[in-house]
Amino acid sequence: MSTEELKLPLIDLSGYIDPKAPGDRERVIAEVKDACAKFGFFQTKGHNIPLGLQKGLLKSIDTLFDMPKEEKRKLSFLQNVSRRGYEESGMSLRDGDKLPDSKEAYYIGREDPVIEHAGFYGPNVWPPLPEDQFRKPVWDYYQATHNLGSIIWEILLQGLGHPISLMESFAKKPMVMMKMIRYPPLAATLPGQFGVGAHTDFGGVTVLLQEPGKHGLEVWLEEKEDWVPVQAVEDVYVINCGDMIMRWSGMQYKSAKHRVINKADNESRLSCATFFHGDIFATNPLNPEDPNKETVGQLLIKRFGNQFSLSKEWKAEVQAAA
């Protein structure tokens, strides 16, 4: 079977969100469980996020990244203890990559008025744009994908035989980060450079919106030892599990490698990923007997510690047991 014949499952979540007949919810739970066990990824429709909200978000991303470079640099996430704000193209380089990512990005998260726990909780950095052009559509979209991430978590838990109520043990004040991305045209990237190089996601559930018709996402399929392209289709989201879910589930759910290569020579490409992890001091809720007692915060520091400007005191606070 060629990779052209391979496609990630497309699951209609409406059977879970708004069931119409007996067995609808159970069918969706089974489909998601199977997809995440086999691929670690699936596509979804019937997700209950209005198309107008998606289009408004993409328009806001374009407005943001069209700002003058010097103005965007004033919003740099490197100057923010909570790592909110702008990431310039070329600032992200993973171990083993020959070249840095070509993408530029902008980060927001929970809107907490006080900086807490090494900055993992704190206020957002909002660009000096009219509220109706950025902050309102972006925040409305963030809340919608926050909700969808929670629903996916519910489904994943039930797929392993756990009750929805288990979320109360690790998602009272979950870290939910959103990353807005613009990839330059292929013609503007260096030979061998990726928009985002091959990686697995760190933690929980990822809810990904791709600009319709602007392809670029590829998922590594272990059993075929090849990259599978995931088309960017209007009103269809891509959902995947991160490393933390794979570990917490005892490897029952996969965390798959993926990368992005903008296929368009002369057009940029937009996307937006919302990452729903869990409370900073949460440990494995699926297995209380798990000998690995690392918290979500500790796992974050282990993966991204060199990317955060953390004081010794704050790092110690996050690494301490709750």
TrEMBL record:
Listed GO biological process terms: small molecule biosynthetic process
InterPro entries: DIOX_N, IPNS-like_FE2OG_OXY, IPNS-like_sf, Iron_ascorbate_oxido_reductase, Oxoglu/Fe-dep_dioxygenase_dom
Keyword Lipid biosynthesis: no
Entries under PROSITE patterns matching the protein: FE2OG_OXY
Keywords for this protein: Iron, Metal-binding, Oxidoreductase
Domain Fe2OG dioxygenase as annotated: residue spans: 173-278
One Pfam entry name: DIOX_N
Keyword Iron included in the entry's annotation: yes
GO molecular function, one term: oxidoreductase activity
Similarity comment text for this entry: Belongs to the iron/ascorbate-dependent oxidoreductase family.
Record-given protein name: 2OG-Fe(II) oxygenase
Species in which this protein is naturally found: Lentithecium fluviatile CBS 122367
Highest classification ranks of the organism: Eukaryota, Fungi, Dikarya, Ascomycota, Pezizomycotina
